[in-house]
Amino acid sequence: MLAAFADVSLLQLLLVAGVALLASVLGGVAGYGTGALMPLVLVPMVGAEPVVPMIAISALLTNTGRAAAFRRHVDVRRTLIVLAASIPTCIVSAYGYTKLTSAGAMLVIGTMLMATVPLRLFLKRRAITIGDRGLAVGGVGYGAAVGGTVGAGIILLSILMAAGLQSAAVVATDAAISIVIGLVRLAVFGLAGVVTAQVLAFALLIGLIAFPGAFFARALVERMPIHVHTAILDAVVLIGGAFLVIGAITR
Description:
Elements: H1 10-30, H2 34-46, H3 51-69, H4 76-98, H5 102-126, H6 132-148, H7 153-162, H8 167-191, H9 197-210, H10 213-221, H11 226-249
Helix pairs in contact: 1-2, 1-9, 1-10, 2-3, 2-11, 3-8, 3-9, 4-6, 4-8, 5-11, 6-7, 7-8
């Protein structure tokens, strides 16, 4: 497994670990972070192609911790509705991602990262409410986005809140859905042959470092208003996504 880090310096590994912890802490308060921040350090280091599989696998660890901590709050009915709607489109988009070139992967990741910021603001301002049918429609879109991109977690959070879930129920149900979706993505990426030793090594590093981040979240950022660190996260994601898109176009 250590051979997977052969071309990566100790400083780079420390950078990955630091960003993973930071992203996990931010995610513990803002509701998202890991999928939005990790590509900004991983793409320049290992290239664009393995980034989505890395984050998909590492997310299994972080979401398992959240699901265990909030298991009593999982809304099973809404979990099943979203999964039934999202799994087919997730499979298609995950398989499509494995066929992208390096430049194509960079373009997809960068564009999706930049899109998450206005999408989050739009959904928050509209305060849309939906029933089971709307939840299923949202699930189809979420599946299409999450299969082959990063940062799609904000879509899932938004449709769950629009369906009436609040507080711990949102965290728990989001985690339960994300675990199953993560397993589906892992299966697709595994069958496509893109889950290499390097992918597994970085995914485990990110997942293990990020796992305790949620428990530190409140203690570390309780003095910072949520709108402040959310604004910082938005700025970093927009700038980083723009650099990835420019890099893909100029390749």
